[in-house]
Write a structure and sequence with these properties.
The protein is 29% helix and 18% strand. The protein is of the alpha/beta class. It has a single domain, classed as Rossmann fold, CATH 3.40.50. The strands form 6 sheets. A 7-stranded parallel beta sheet has the order 5-8-4-9-10-11-12, sandwiched between helices. A 3-stranded antiparallel beta sheet has the order 1-14-13.
Length: 485
């Protein structure tokens, strides 16, 4: 999201041109290219604002691929030679890369991230990570693109699906950082899911927070509309500041803003190899993505959340109170962010988790031993004796409980005695039977006599007979010999 104007010895503003709807705005003027040395001089304040020169003493972004999801990047411009990887065109409009209207906005952004100048690096644009490479993935069109009208008629849902595809393509093709200088006013499940995939693979995602500040102020609104993907969790949202470090009037004010970077009259190289002054949250996003690339280059295993933390906690020009919705936590500082990332890398050197010595509380090694004294042979022998005594008590108590539960019942052992508990009592079975009655009143188990030891011959026995009405009637048996006869 930006505004831009080409640079000569004196800069002129000719017209306002919307590059992508609803994705970016640019102010541009056809003109002759500026001399390269004047471009480098014009860029000096930008590099100073983000403290890039000090960071280059540590790294210049070597080994990192930054995916520029935009309108396309022209790999033939002088300041990006051999630094561009061509990716897919997902716009569906079919404009060839050789068309003059193809890839203006995307080439601007790429030069701010990975421009390495020319003529030995002394002329032209130097990006924040000049030794990084960019992966060009085209999802939007510039207004000068022949297919712009067709692109504008397509529903935004299709554009969001293609954005999700672009993010997944970047992840699969080795991007360590994703830069998106674009935005939608609504969220998308397809984009949210793709962003989660990027974060899961350790990719740092940076996006511009929008250029709706002036519109919100004109409408009497306190905050500008949220811009997606800047407002998704895990994405570093970037606002724009001017040369004095103040928030740009056009920069959106909302809680998606986490940091700020230069975004007013920032020199950049276009697809036509001319140099332009661009304004908007788009260049601010690209510069911040360059800072993320420096950290990723120096600390390749540092998790995206740690890289965002290193950037947001080391800003300069802090707002009152430490944070506001215009500039977030302040302007990014590349050198300070690298230093902070080094400290974080020492604490958490792997994405997969914490080292044992760095866990909460110091890990298992920091836990003191349980205060138990040594045990000698005598102590162990005493404990064994105590255990045996306890076992004996349990056995005795169990035996006693079994005897108590049996009660006074007597069992005939077949030898003319009734055993009660553990001692025998004399008893004589009735003549002719040789054993106790098998059935009797009050007992359902054969072989057990009455509790008082009386002879079973005096007990009535019952036999079941079937009655005519189907009822069972119990009749007492006649005694074999009655005592009164």
């Amino acid at each position: 999201m930006l505004t831009a104007a080409p640079r000569r010895a004196r800069l002129r503003l000719a017209c306002l041109l919307a590059l992508t709807m609803p994705l970016a705005l640019s102010v541009i003027t056809p003109a002759s290219p500026a001399r390269a040395d004047s471009v480098r001089s014009a860029q000096a304040w930008v590099l100073t604002a983000v403290n890039a020169s000090a960071a280059w003493n540590v790294t210049k972004g070597e080994g990192v691929i930054v995916a520029v999801i935009d309108s396309g990047v022209n790999p033939a411009v002088s300041d990006l030679t051999n630094s561009v990887i061509a990716g897919p065109d997902l716009t569906g409009v079919g404009t060839p890369p050789g068309d003059p209207g193809w890839g203006m906005h995307g080439t601007w952004m790429a030069s701010l991230i990975a421009g390495h100048g020319h003529n030995g690096g002394g002329d032209g644009i130097t990006g924040i990570a000049p030794q990084a490479r960019v992966l060009s993935i085209r999802v939007i069109t510039d207004k000068a693109d022949p297919g712009y009208a067709r692109y504008e008629r397509e529903p935004s849902s299709r554009g969001q699906r293609q954005l999700g595809r672009a993010i997944r393509y970047a992840v699969r093709h080795g991007a360590g950082v994703i830069s998106m200088s674009l935005g939608y006013t609504t969220s998308s499940l397809a984009v949210r899911s793709a962003l989660q995939d990027a974060l899961n693979h350790g990719v740092v995602v940076v996006a511009s927070s929008g250029n709706s500040g002036n519109a919100a102020e004109a409408g009497g609104k306190r905050h500008a509309p949220y811009s997606f993907p800047a407002d998704y969790p895990g994405v570093l949202g970037v606002a724009a500041v001017n040369k004095a470090g103040s928030a740009a009037a056009f920069s959106s004010e909302n809680l998606s803003v986490q940091v700020a970077a230069p975004g007013v009259d920032v020199p950049a190289q276009g697809r036509d190899s001319q140099y332009w002054l661009v304004s908007g949250t788009s260049p601010a996003c690209a510069l911040t993505a360059g800072v993320a690339a420096l950290i990723r280059s120096r600390y390749p295993d540092l998790a995206p959340a740690m890289i965002r933390q290193a950037i947001t906690r080391t800003t300069r020009s802090h707002p009152p109170g430490g944070y506001d919705d215009q500039v977030g936590f302040g302007t990014v500082d590349a050198a300070a962010a690298l230093t902070a990332a080094g400290r974080l890398a020492g604490q958490v050197p792997h994405r997969s988790g914490l080292l044992p010595a760095r866990r909460f509380g110091g890990g298992p090694a920091a836990v003191p031993p349980v205060p138990i004294g040594p045990r000698g042979v005598q102590t162990l022998a005493l404990l064994c004796l105590l255990g045996a005594a306890c076992l004996a008590l349990v056995v005795a108590a169990t035996r006693r409980l079994v005897l108590v539960r049996r009660g006074p019942m007597r069992r005939w052992d077949g030898g003319g005695e009734i055993t009660v508990g553990g001692g025998p009592l004399p008893w004589h079975p009735p003549a002719g039977t040789g054993r106790p009655d098998d059935t009797h009143s009050g007992s359902s188990q054969p072989g057990w006599g009455p509790a008082d030891g009386a002879r079973t011959s005096v007990l009535p026995r019952f036999s079941w007979q079937s009655g005519s009405a189907g009822r069972h009637i119990a009749q007492p048996e006649q005694r074999a010999a009655e005592d009164d006869e």
